[in-house]
Amino acid sequence: MEDIETREIFRISFTELNTYLTCPFRYMLLYEYGFDVPSTRDQLYGIAVHECLRRINRRLMRGEAVTDDYLQELASHALRDIEMSPDGFRAFISKLKRYLEEIRGRASEIVSAEKPFSIMKDGFMITGQTDLIIRNREGGLELVDFKSMSGSGIHARDIELQLGVYRHALDLDFDGFLAYTFEDSEWHLIEPAADIEGLLEDVAERIRREEFPPRENNLCSLCIFRSICTYINGRQEAGAGGEAEDLRRAFRDLDPHDMDGYVEAMERIMGYLRNSHDPEVRARAADYLGEAGDAVALDVLREALNDPGEGVRIAARRAIERLKKAQRALKEDYQTLICGRDLFKPKKIHTPEGQFVVCRVCGHSKFLEDGVREVVGIIGDEEYSWRQEDRLFISMWDEESKRARNADIDVLWVTDSGDMDYGWAINAVYQRLKNDVTRAKPLSEIPVILRGDPEIGEEEMDILQRFGEVRYG
Fold first, then answer.
1. CATH assignment of 38-194, among 3.30.360.10, 3.40.50.300, 3.90.320.10, 3.40.50.2000
2. Beta strand pairing status for 174-181 and 186-189?
């Protein structure tokens, strides 16, 4: 009888997948060798937040009351292993109440709370669970992931990957993909990663081949496996000042004209301020952040005001003062600011140290440009974005990739553009703008101007009338 060779099914959770993509060496030690790593305070806090929100959502699903007494009892149980001051506990309760208000206002129905899923494909299986699926007030499904930090702490790649995997696994028609950040009680619109199937196949094959090289990332300085990591040890053998030299390189990489490189360099510097065991490195990182003058560093600098090292605390205070000076011109021009990186308008942050202005989405102040009094979104023009004096023009639809973009527009133009599929474009742009729940200007206040003779049907015109006034011009 002919032998039949069967290939063992490769199983991986989303957490394991994300660990491998961050650092294959860490994945090997945790999941191949089974090293036991104690949870950090941040991890315990994140678990507590997820537990509280899960229980609140399930009570709402069952139609049960969520009283103040219940929230007190719930928080006391969830935070039992975390040291927290009375003021901190009261703040935690306030954030739970804020979430309760937010979800009641946003969801007409909670469809599921922590829904498990699995993807089976050609010999491998990935498992996980979603935090929340809701039906919004317009009847559309939205997939929500909870993060225990504030919006400035979100790592875009991680959350885009996470929601991309969830979308691929659930295979449902979602109207929106959102992250809810517990610390600042804000909703964030997320564009999930694409080509998830190809990524999963690649990771599964690399793990089968036992490819576990170390990979540098912003967690290296805090990693419990530093002493046995070939990357860390190799860098330290090249010179005792490895951290200090890498920090200097990051500072030299702060070129605002290379926006992606700048963002990565800022994350490295903030990582050293948060995670370095060397107080001199932390103090130098704080100084560099002050020189950069970018308010995206405000949270980490405020944390450093409580650093055990006096030199670090002094450097952090000095850096915050430099941020305040860099902010003066921005606050004066607030009404005409827009982020040159993401094309969103700013928001104001109020802290005990003062008021700061940052992009409402990316959190940076370095990319804010002034002098823009009107932002015009265009459906029908092939240009990406361009500026004419005090007007900024943004293409809202890419006909080739069939993708809509989001931006803080003041007016929407629909122009005559040959073979464009206006039905697809107008609906996609509308959905993209509608799903941005943090937008300051509602769609009903954004007028639509039809320029030329675009071929628009009745259904598309109905969608455009959900904006402000529709007129020809």
1. 3.90.320.10
2. antiparallel
CA–CA dist 372, 336 (Å, integer): 5
Q: What does the pLDDT read at residue 8?
A: 63
Q: What angle do CA 361, 247, 348 make, to 5 degrees?
A: 25
Question: What pLDDT is attached to residue 234?
Answer: 53
What letter would DSSP give residue 160?
H
Q: Report the alpha-carbon distance of residue 331 to residue 299 in Å, rounded.
A: 19
Angstrom distance (rounded) from CA 154 to CA 145:
11
What gap in Å lies between CA 177 and CA 131, rounded to an integer? 12
Fold for the domain defined by 239-335: Leucine-rich Repeat Variant (1.25.10)
Q: Tell me the C-alpha distance between 168 and 435, whole Å.
A: 20
Give 145's contacts (C-beta < 8 A, 6+ positions apart): 130, 131, 132, 159, 162, 163, 166, 178, 179, 180, 190
Task: Give the angle 22-177-198 at the CA atoms, nearest 5°.
Answer: 45
Phi, psi angle pair for 443, to nearest 5°: -60, -30
CA 273, CA 304: separation in Å to the nearest integer? 8
What lies within 8 Å, CB to CB, of 446 at 6+ separation is 409, 410, 411, 412, 433, 467, 468
Which stretches of the chain drop beneath a pLDDT of 50? 1-6, 236-240
- In total, the chain counts a number of residues equal to 473
Q: Mind listing the pLDDT tens digit for each residue in 313-350?
A: 988 998 999 899 889 889 888 889 999 888 899 999 99
- Domain locations along the chain: 38-194, 239-335, 374-472
Q: What are phi and psi of 420, to 5 degrees?
A: -65, 140
Q: Say how far apart CA 276 and CA 285 lie, in whole Å.
A: 10
As a whole number of Å, the end-to-end CA separation of the chain is: 79
Ramachandran area for residue 293 (φ above 0: left; ψ -120 to 50: alpha; else beta): left
